[in-house]
Amino acid sequence: MDNIKTVALIGFGEAGGILGAELARKDVAVSMWDIKLDGPEGAAMRLKAEDAGVIARANLEACVGAGQLVISAVTASSDAEVVEAAARFIRPGQVFMDINSVSPATKQHGRQVIEAAGAAFVEAAVMAPVPPYGLRVPMLLGGREAAQLAPALQALGFDATAIATEVGVASAVKMCRSVMIKGIEALSVECLSAARAYGAEELVLASLKETFAKLQRDADPAGYLISRVAEHGRRRAAEMREVSDTLREAGIAPLMSDATARLQDATVDAMAAHGIAYDATVPFDWRKLVDTLKK
After folding, report:
1. What value does the mean pLDDT of the chain take?
2. Domain map of the chain by residue range?
3. What is the rounded end-to-end Cα distance, in angstroms, of the chain?
4. CATH 3.40.50.720 for domain 6-172
């Protein structure tokens, strides 16, 4: 796809609304359809589209038919239903780009459905919140046509990078990163709620700042962190059960702390089941350990 002149947006919420408005300002003919158009929010959404220079189509069929590039920007729970509905109307020569945060298997299902209809499917993993980036939000693309689509998107102002010809790799990057980022967010709620309850938040934050700075300087932070579980997991699990008691005493549900204790114990148990002693793994290779424990 050398030159994108028409885009169809399925979903006109926060992400779809921002992308649609910015594309329209670049003289792209943008159409949209959203299931909410037929509900109580329909009038406001049509006004939002009009203000953005985006055409609100009467139905999904009209929307899909209006774009060289069809972008699905819906909720994760609606992803599969939307791709199956769009496949009834999409035609050869069109590209369907799924930017929703869903699993690799869900994206692969979308590829099968869209390609069966004769169109091209590209997954896009959106690696940061769309606001405030807009079109410049980093996107990782996957699929047979990803390398061809990337420069066309870049010409419109997208920060799009093709990373794989297979569908599923880009979404795996997004999902696995979310384990860490959303996990840190959840840990922050649990940690600082308890620290606040004990009047210890400033000292806790200062200690965390120092620890995170050391991790940034470490040549292999992943290896260091996983090695601590492999070497000291049993002791750390016992400590985390004490942490859970500490949180309960402050009236805080230790959801993340309880799970951490279970994971520490489970890792040591898995190593024992595979006959792995930590001392025998030095120099420590976290990739080798993880691959072995999967077997």
Report:
1. 97
2. 6-172, 218-294
3. 42
4. yes
